[in-house]
């Protein structure tokens, strides 16, 4: 029993921020919105400085495969830092499908 508890504690200690990482919308708001804006328009403070474009601004991004966008997130793209230590490959892929894609498809008014 004691051993079991110790193992459980170890497991909890070894997985900092797991819950936050799994909620990728929250992760986006916390780590990506500073540049891309909360809605992906590129109007975050950092985005304005770095000249980030809105995800929905060009048709080009809509044609980029999920895998390539996920790689850009993990490896970094231009002025964007790499997130490979914070997002697994699967999480980066989910980020594209669940969070980024809807922002790309959203029509500009
Ligand atoms: C320091 C500012 C910054 C942060 C933080 C940041 N990005 Fe970026 N991101 C950029 C810039 C600059 C570009 C390239 C210019 C552009 O097209 O907007 C870019 C490009 C992208 C692209 C398009 C890649 C391509 O092939 O054109 C995606 C997708 C993306 N970012 C997602 C994210 C996600 C998801 C996060 C959070 C995990 C994130 N970014 C955090 C600045 C940032």
Structure write-up:
- The chain has helices at residues 2-14, 18-22, 24-36, 45-50, 60-63, 66-75, 89-105.
- The chain is an all-alpha fold and 109 residues long.
- It has a single domain (18-105), classed as Cytochrome Bc1 Complex, Chain D, domain 2 (Orthogonal Bundle), CATH 1.10.760.
- Helix 6 (66-75) crosses helix 7.
- The longest helix is centred in the C-terminal third of the chain and has 17 residues, at 89-105.
- The protein starts with a helix and ends with a helix.
- 18% of the residues are buried.
- The mean pLDDT is 83.
- Bound molecules: heme C.
**Secondary structure: number of strands:** 0
Kindly give the count of domains.
Answer: 1
Termini separation: 60 Å
- Rounded to an integer in angstroms, the radius of gyration calculated over CA atoms is 17 Å
CATH architecture descriptor text: Orthogonal Bundle
The major beta sheet can be summarized as: none
Would you give the CATH topology?
Cytochrome Bc1 Complex, Chain D, domain 2
Count helical runs: 7
Which ions, cofactors or small ligands are bound in this entry? heme C
Low-confidence spans: pLDDT under 50, at least 5 residues? none
Strand content: under 5%
Q: Could you tell me the mean pLDDT? A: 83
Class inferred from helices and paired strands:
mainly alpha
Helix content: 55-70%
- Order of SSEs: HHHHHHH
- CATH structural class: Mainly Alpha
Tell me, what's the shape?
globular
């Amino acid at each position: 029993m004691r051993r079991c508890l110790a193992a459980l504690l170890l497991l909890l200690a070894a997985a900092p921020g797991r819950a936050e990482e799994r909620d990728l919308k929250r992760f986006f708001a916390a780590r990506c919105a500073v540049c891309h804006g909360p809605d992906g328009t590129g109007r975050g403070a950092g985005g304005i400085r770095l000249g980030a474009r809105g995800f929905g601004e060009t048709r080009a991004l809509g044609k980029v495969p999920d895998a390539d966008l996920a790689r850009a997130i993990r490896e970094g793209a231009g002025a964007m830092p790499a997130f490979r230590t914070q997002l697994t490959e699967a999480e980066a892929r989910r980020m594209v499908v669940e969070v980024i894609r809807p922002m790309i498809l959203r029509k500009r008014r």
